[in-house]
Amino acid sequence: MKKVLRCAVFNLSREWGQEEYALRVRLAREGILCVDFTKTEWSLIKRNEDTVVLTDSPQTGAKLAREGIVYVGCCHAMDTRINQNSATKATDADMVSCWFDGAALVLEGFEEVDARYLEEWMLRTKGHPVTIARTKRLLIREISDKDIPELERIGRTCGGAEAKEEPIEETNVKMNEGISYAGENICKERELHVQGNRFTKEYLYPYRRTAYRLQGFGLWSVLYRNRVIGCCGFEPWDEKLETAESDAQSPAGMRPDRTDKIMQYHLTLREVSAESLGIILEMQYMLDPAYHRQGFGTEMCRASLACARERLDADEVRLRIREGNLASRALAEKLGFVSEL
Questions:
Q1: Which of 58, 178, 244, 275 has an alpha carbon within 20 to 30 A of 255's alpha carbon?
Q2: Do the Cβ atoms of 246 and 255 come closer than 8 Å?
Q3: How far is CA 285 from CA 46, 72, 153, 170, 301, in A?
Q4: Exposure string (b/e) for 103-128, b if CB count within 10 Å is 16 or more?
Q5: Which residue blocks in 86-226 are alpha helix, DSSP H?
């Protein structure tokens, strides 16, 4: 990925002390110029697209946002923080200083922050998709607005194939049965589904503007030779999601036209203690039928799982697949997933 971040400007109080120093050292080692806000002209910051500001002042942050400058809010205590003024002198801004209007993100500490982390959030704030992974043939990146019409077409194709009982192939699994998309069998009332397909413009446009900035991951576009051929990615695991068995309670027009059983699979990425469930993600994927039986499904899923392990620190990944979707189940097993019978 081409380097977008070249300069980090610090506007932090003394309480950040060693944390700020350690972050400056890490960024400097990665070739990022680190300077003080007070020693940098405001106009210079505004002119440079490759600069991000770190501040613990909500007032400064608000001004930066109005000027269109990317900044990161820094706040040790995310609930309340009135430690610079007495209660009688505290302003509304002090009372809610954990809120930074227009911030790319708000950090409580810098332990896991590096140049790549800041650069990714900088890109998201500017509306640019972040590259997740590159394989021998594929580019996996966050969804952009220009991807959405093609994703909607692919989703409509997959949904239509399901409704007509004509399953489609999604990988190089050598079976007559095809793979319909995994994870999209689930019906949630708060989402817009069309026969179980949430790949609609109404859902995807707001999704790509919020999901990555709220949780740092989500569903990603898969490109082959600069063309969108599907998607793959993760959502936080939710035990409460409705499945085919509870579709009767879903609003008309929002439930899949299928009633077969939903099977669950899991893949352990790292062992966790008995006292902790760890980080559990649900994997989802979809592929254009024109690219079936060429190994693309396996390739994109393996790259996504590597990201879940190395960048998202997931301890376990789960899948929901319809019982009759034999090729999807075969792919899950090929990737190492175990059925929860």
A1: 178
A2: no
A3: 40, 32, 15, 9, 8
A4: bbbbbeebeebebebbbbbbbbbeee
A5: 92-95, 115-125, 148-163, 201-215
More confident: 23 or 43:
23
Which single residue is written with the structure tokens 């899948």?
319
- Paired tokens of 292: 């079936």
Who contacts 9 (Cβ-Cβ below 8 Å, separation ≥6)? 35, 36, 37, 40, 45, 51, 52, 53, 54
| Whole-angstrom distance, CA of residue 287 vs CA of residue 300 | 10
* Cα 276 → chain centroid: 23
110 pLDDT above the threshold of 60: yes
Query: Which residues, other chains included, contact 312 with Cβ-Cβ below 8 Å and sequence gap of 6+?
Result: 216, 217, 234, 279, 281
pLDDT digits (tens, 9 = 90+) for 159-200: 654 333 333 333 333 322 333 456 543 333 333 333 445 788
Q: Quick one: tokens of 80?
A: 């309340």
Phi-psi region of 178 (alpha: psi -120 to 50; beta: other; left: phi over 0): beta
